[in-house]
Every structure is written in C-alpha cells, then in structure tokens.
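ping. complex inputs:
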Amino acid sequence: MSFLQVRNLSVRLKKGPPLLRRVSLDVAAGEVRGLVGESGAGKSMIGKAVLGILPPSIEVTEGEILLDGVDLLRLPLAQRRRRIGALCALIPQDPLTALNPSHRIGPQITDRLVDILGWTRADADRRAGELLAEVQIPDPDRVLRSYPHELSGGMRQRILIASAFAAEPKLIVADEPTTALDVTVQKQILKLIAGMQARHGTALLFVTHDLGVVSKVCQRLSVLYAGMVVEDTSVADFFAAPRHAYSAALLAATPKYTDPSAGLIPVPEAVISAVQAEVAAFDRSVAHG
Amino acid sequence: MAEARAIDGRSMVRRKAGLRLWLSAGWLGLLCVVALFAPWIAPKDPLAQDLFLGRLPPFWMEGAEPGYWLGTDSLGRDVLSRIIHGARVALAVALIAGTITCLVGATLGLLAGFLRGWVDLVISRLIDIWMAFPPVLFSILLIAVLGPGLVSIIIAIVVIDWTRFARVVRAEAMAQGAMDYVASARVAGRGRLGTMMREILPNVLPTIVVLLTLEMGIAVIVEAILSFVNLSISTDDPTWGGMISEGRTSVHQAWWVLVFPLVTLFLTVLAFSQLGEGLKDRFDPVLR
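pong. complex structure:
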C-alpha cells in the first residue's frame, strides 16, 4: 500500500467553480512523484490539501487523503495537525518569504522540534548543526546565529531543505522549490534535494511546471489540466511516449536550448479545446450523477 | 570603491536615524523627569495667584520680575511652573491611554487579520461603524456622559482611537499570514494561537511601536483639545490645553501665556512621532 493515497479529491472555491476534479494519485514510501501542469492547473492545491493548509476560502467537497492508511479528512482538526506534523514537511516555493525575518535561523529550525515534537534543546541544536552540514552550508554555527536577510536566496533554500528534513518526515511536499532561484543555483538545489531524498528514503511530492526538473528527480508523474489528472505514468514512459494528447503537447512545448532558432512552440489550440471538452464532459457527468 | 561608498552610505543613514532618536528620546526623557519631580523642580506654586504680578513678561523683556522665567498669566500664576505641572497630566494621558489603546486595537487587529473568517467580519464591520462617528463630537459626548476627569479622558481616547491600531495591524497581519513561513509553521503542527504569537506578532511589532508612539502624541493633543473646551480634569490642575485656552483670551496683552504651552505641546507631539520613526529605523529586522 502506498504511503500517500489521494482518492477522488475534489476541491472548490466556496460556492464557486471546482479547482480540483476527482484527483487520485499515489506516492509510495521513498518514491518521488512529480506534479506538472500550467499555472492554475491545481498542482500546488494538491500539496496544500495534503498538508492541510488550504486557504480558508477553499473547501474540500469530496474524496479521501490517506496518509499511512488513515484518512486525514476524517480526523478531528487537532489530530490531523499532529499526524501531518509528525509525518510530513514542506519545502516552500519562495525562499525569501519562507523564513521568518524576525527570528534567527537556529531557532527557526529547532523550536518546532522542541515545542511540538518534544526534543531536548541540546538534541535539537546538535541536529540543526548536522543538517546544515549535510546541505553543504559552510560555517553552520555562524549561519545558525544569522537572520534570514543576511543570507543569499540559495543559502536560504538550503536551510529550508535542511529544516524540512529535520524531524525525518516520511513525506515532503516540495512546492516549486527551484522556481524562485536562478538557473545555476537551481541545478545545485535539485541535486541536493534528490540526494537528501535518496539518503533519507523520504517520499516526495514534487510540484513543478518544469519538465526538465521532472526528468532529473522524479520516478512517477501526474499531469494536470484544470484540476484533472490527464495522465499518471512513470517518468521513463512519459518521456518515451506520452499517452495523452495534452501531455504530448506539453512535452513538445518544452524549449530546447540546443537550437536557439527553433523558437517557442505553444500548446496547439486543437489540443486545448479537446482537453477543455474533456473537463466539460466531466463536469456534466458530476452534475447529472 | 563602489563597495566602500555603499558602506559609507549605509552608516550615514544610520547616524541620521540615531540623531532623530536621541533628540526625541532626550526631550521626552527630560519631560518625564520634570513631570515626576514637578513639585521640587517648579520654581513657584502653579496655583498661587497674585493679582499685583499679573501678566508679567518673560525674563528677557522689560518689566520682567526675577523668578518668573516665562512670565505670569492674568491671575499672576507662574507660566513655567504651570507648564511643568501640566506635563504630569499630559504624560500620564499619553502613556496610559496610548498603551491601553494599543493593546486593545492591536489585539483585535491581529485576531481579525490572522484568523480571518467570521472574526474578521465582526471586527471589520465594527471598525467601519466606529469610524463613521465624528471623533471630536464623540469624545465630547463621552466625557459629558462619564463626567470630566483623568479616567474619563483615558477611556474616551481608548474608545475612539482603537480603530487606528486595529485597521493597520489587521492589514499587516494579513500580509504576514500569507507568507510561506506561516504555512511551514502550520504544517509543523503549531496551533493557531502559537503561530500568531510566534510567527506573526514579531513581524507586526515594528509597526505597532510606530503607531504606539504616534498614538501617545495624539493622546496629548486630544487631552489638550478637551482641556481647551473645559472638559478635561478639574479646572484647578494646570494642563497645557487649559493654559492655551486661557492664554487665547489675553493673547494681545500677554502672548507668552499662549505661546509657551503651545510650543511645549508641539515639541512633545513631534518628539513622540519622531521617536517611533527612529525606533523603527533602528529595530525593524528588514531595515536593520
């Protein structure tokens, strides 16, 4: 049984249009699943639903989120928070807003371990030092005493990765962790995440719009359009032969830097209207059934 | 070279902020000492009248009487001594009313901005309704109902001005609540209250401090306005507003009765607002 099972998850704006349409996906223990799609396809929404941090204006209308066999949506709020806190972590998108500017780095990593998971202060401090060394931060002791604004974006993203792995979670949701970084740093950060994931055996839900990133770190892949999973496949199969027309168009639209004269290829109109027709058909079947 | 200039620029900015901070803190510190030890510092009894010494000019003008540094009013009371005693009321109102207003308004604003939902709905509508009242009329009405006195003034200021804090802090808390570090804290299992106190409050605090000092200045003004319309504390105790009101009637014969309390009031309000700005420059984690 997979560690995370999302079953028929539907989410919508309160009294508004659906944002996720019966999404199902599995992440096995230690597996990396990519979530790709254009902006607004609902990739981040899935991650937020799993972690229980959907904005208050959004509600879950149906479905199950089984974390290690227990449906999170059926747990009382306090228990859900505890279960998520013990088993999951988040690597957020923007390293510049993901660290609290008012606190030093050290406490931002350790206080959660001490306050919520009941570690001793000494254990937590030692752990923070080890983690920073593991994400290749030079002079960890100095960095632990720094404020976020004293560090570069790449450095902060390393700290966030270290912090996510601090309590040895079983599942990490990485919400576009490299989007806010420049390309040279991106590559290092990707390598770092892949390496950490492999060493710690953590399952990873990797939200991204970059298929290049998917090919480097993921084993399985879900392609989303308008809150619907249009393709769920292994990464090897996807790059060899995408099954859905939209996935194929998405793959074809990825810029190839080897030929600068080629220009950008948009997803063809016909493909978009076909996939939109699928979405409309789905909505009709929900309305009637 | 560019590096060196950048460092120079930053240190100059800091020195300027420091000067502002020291000047305003110095003036307010002086005022506090004067207010605390008023009976020992004031050269004369602020209530002692002597009709033969009425409307004496300040010390550098012709006809000044030694010992009456800033002259006397039409009843022969020493202006300097009355300003010194007036500082007690002004500062008491500034500190107590400012602090309570801040606590009430910031708490409500923080709750509304962070919890959102129905809490925000209730508090925001309350703010909207509150701000529809004309503040001066509202305060005069309140004092008329409560009866004059120091406590009434403080209550009136809190009741009228809490919305100032609530609005700004709510907006700030909302902006902070959307940050990723709040999401991370929630994922880690921190409760709503814990997240609010640990993640949001420290980042809203610089704004609260600026507002607090601003509010203290405003409280001084409100007290002066109420004294001016004779609705402050009992008319025996000297207040700056009361002095301004009395000085107004004899401004052609004795301008000093009006001008000296007015200048003191002006400097004090200015010092409060500059203290807030100075503190923000100094302690805001992002500017630091």
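Residues 2-283 of chain B form a domain with the MetI-like fold fold (CATH 1.10.3720.10).
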